[in-house]
Amino acid sequence: MHPQFGRPRRLNSSSENVPDMEYYLVKWKGWPDSTNTWEPLQNLKCPLLLQQFSNDKHIYLSQVKKGKAITLKNNNKALKPAIAEYIVKKAKQRIALQRWQDELNRRKNHKGMIFVENTVDLEGPPSDFCYINEYKPTPGISLVNEATFGCSCTDCFFEKCCPAEAGVLLAYNKSQQIKIPPGTPIYECNSRCQCGPDCPNRIVQKGTQYSLCIFRTSNGCGWGVKTLVKIKRMSFVMEYVGEVITSEEAERRGQLYDHRGITYLFDLDYESDEFTVDAARYGNVSHFVNHSCDPNLQVFNVFIDNLDTRLPRIALFSTRTINAGEELTFDYQMKGSGDISSDSIDYSPAKKRVRTVCKCGAVTCRGYLN
């Protein structure tokens, strides 16, 4: 058996020459509370749990001391109830977040791993969020998943490939970095192309290649996403996916979201303004990416198997080198054309009608998300 969490107390010895013995109340994994036992430290062979216990106690005391002084006197026989309660909650939260992390990695279909971290508060996994890997059309919307033609290139770098057929340049260089300016569409090779999976024009369709961490921010922005590895400039990082809805439905949902203070509507406005992606309930890692007025990710429209220009896929590429541990951000007002919208109701990825204060902290911060 292995302990999940516990709380210590000190028992005084009847002899002055024998030091106090510290005991921990242990909840045994898979067993009811009625089987909890008090165990001396030497019986516990779980250094990681003990370190987490100590860290949680230190964090709690540090947080409380910001408001008022708290000390643990030497004659205390046990932890204060509030401290013990916090430590138990942190342990339960850690278990819940680990289960959520495992679920996310079971659902994702890309190479990059997903990690979850919260060292800020007691917030657990979101209660109404489902991880998906591609667009989820709502009733009445059809996503054609099969291209009608494909290339027969032996080397897509030097022959007339899919981008040329669409009248645009091939988007990538030989280092798999994007070389076209924002606003230019990306046409990748598709399921009908004769080139193989190693074709240099198959980047977005391979999914996220980097290990990313969904983490709780300390600046009041809720959850965010940071990279755990270095990302080169102009590299594909992730897609923005969610439910595909009509613009009319987006208007209706947008009014509801305004009152809840959430921002997940992204207009598919490459050629028209008929459809919107809603990542509020269904989405991938991009659901948790925060806004910045000075972002390190840029939006591009992508066409692969579905060549309907009303329904581009939305890809996020790095605008510069992003170091390991750095938060990933994109501009919620950035259109697929690369322009900043002046009308957040009609064009902004964040279809907001109420002015929302921006907390990005950038030198160039505009003050509001919309």
UniProtKB/TrEMBL annotation:
GO terms for biological process: cell differentiation; epigenetic regulation of gene expression; methylation; negative regulation of DNA-templated transcription. Its EC number is 2.1.1.355. Zn(2+) 4 binds at residues 293, 358, 360, 365. Zn(2+) 2 binds at residues 151, 162, 189, 193. It catalyses: L-lysyl(9)-[histone H3] + 3 S-adenosyl-L-methionine = N(6),N(6),N(6)-trimethyl-L-lysyl(9)-[histone H3] + 3 S-adenosyl-L-homocysteine + 3 H(+). Pfam families: Chromo, Pre-SET, SET. Zn(2+) 3 binds at residues 156, 189, 195, 199. Residues 5-65 form the Chromo domain. Residues 354-370 form the Post-SET domain. Residues 210-333 form the SET domain. PROSITE patterns: CHROMO_1, CHROMO_2, POST_SET, PRE_SET, SAM_MT43_SUVAR39_3, SET. Keywords: Cell cycle, Centromere, Chromatin regulator, Chromosome, Differentiation, Metal-binding, Methyltransferase, Nucleus, Repressor, S-adenosyl-L-methionine, Transcription, Transcription regulation, Transferase, Zinc. Residues 149-207 form the Pre-SET domain. GO terms for cellular component: chromosome, centromeric region; nucleus. GO terms for molecular function: histone H3K9 trimethyltransferase activity; zinc ion binding. Its main location: nucleus. Zn(2+) 1 binds at residues 151, 153, 156, 161. InterPro entries: Chromo-like_dom_sf (IPR016197), Chromo/chromo_shadow_dom (IPR000953), Chromo_domain (IPR023780), Chromodomain_CS (IPR023779), H3-K9_MeTrfase_SUV39H1/2-like (IPR011381), H3K9_Histone-Lys_N-MTase (IPR050973), Post-SET_dom (IPR003616), Pre-SET_dom (IPR007728). It is found in: Chromosome, Centromere; Nucleus. Belongs to the class V-like SAM-binding methyltransferase superfamily. Histone-lysine methyltransferase family. Suvar3-9 subfamily. PANTHER family: HISTONE-LYSINE N-METHYLTRANSFERASE SUV39H (PTHR46223), HISTONE-LYSINE N-METHYLTRANSFERASE SUV39H2 (PTHR46223:SF2). Interacts with SMAD5. The large PER complex involved in the histone methylation is composed of at least PER2, CBX3, TRIM28, SUV39H1 and/or SUV39H2; CBX3 mediates the formation of the complex. This is Histone-lysine N-methyltransferase. The lineage of its organism: Eukaryota, Metazoa, Chordata, Craniata, Vertebrata.
